[in-house]
Amino acid sequence: MAPQQENAPAVQPVQQQERQLVRTADVDLRADDVLKAIGQVKDRARAVGGFAGQENSTKKSGSVTVRVPSTELDKLVQDLANVGEVTRSEVKSQDVTDQLVDVESRIATQRASVERLRALFERAGSTSEVAQVESELTKRQAELESMQRRSESLKGQVAMATLTVDVATTPIAPPEEEKVGFLGALAGGWNALVAVTGVVLIGLGAMLPFAVALGMPAFAVVYLLRRRRRITQTNEAG
């Protein structure tokens, strides 16, 4: 005896329904303390009615996934700027309206089929009929429950958005790179000239006392020799 299906209840047209969106967000943060930042993300998620999910962290990096009401997602993403430096932020939306309409239609059809089989089971006369209807009823009931779980899963994803936050420590500023090319060579030459000039001046300063000490006697000798030469020339002329 082949089971028969009744007409399923009418499903509301897609264009008349509010769009059902599954929202997700991914944010990259930089913070001085990774563990503290992850804790603050979880606290903020709980404060808006959400909860924390998967988490892994070390001293240098970590990530946490939280679920929050979809209506609170944008506000929470903006609030993460108070936790650390936001280096990347991406929010996505997936329209699952058609999927929900389809699964709800299948549920309605399957539920009607199950009810029909239950009625047939009640009227089954022979043992073979009872066994056949019971087997089909069990199969249809399992399919119905699977569809219902799918529907609940989609509705849950629509109601609660998923936010994944990756946190890394704030990097230490690298040393300034040396200039290259003509300007770099010019700057290097100027620095070398300044250094050499400084060394020369220091050397001259160190030698100055010795030059004065040695120069005075030499000047006196030259002066006396010139004076003696003038006297000799005067006597010869007289």
UniProtKB/TrEMBL annotation:
Q: Which residues, by range, are in coiled-coil regions? A: 130-157
Q: Where is the DUF4349 domain?
A: 19-221
**Key words of the record:** Coiled coil, Membrane, Transmembrane, Transmembrane helix
Q: Does the keyword Transmembrane helix apply?
A: yes
Q: Which domain of life is it from?
A: Bacteria
Q: Where are the transmembrane segments?
A: 180-202, 208-225
Presence of the UniProt keyword Endoplasmic reticulum in the record: no
InterPro entries documented for this protein: DUF4349
Give one Pfam family, short name only: DUF4349
- Name of this protein: DUF4349 domain-containing protein
Q: Which organism is it from?
A: Lentzea albida
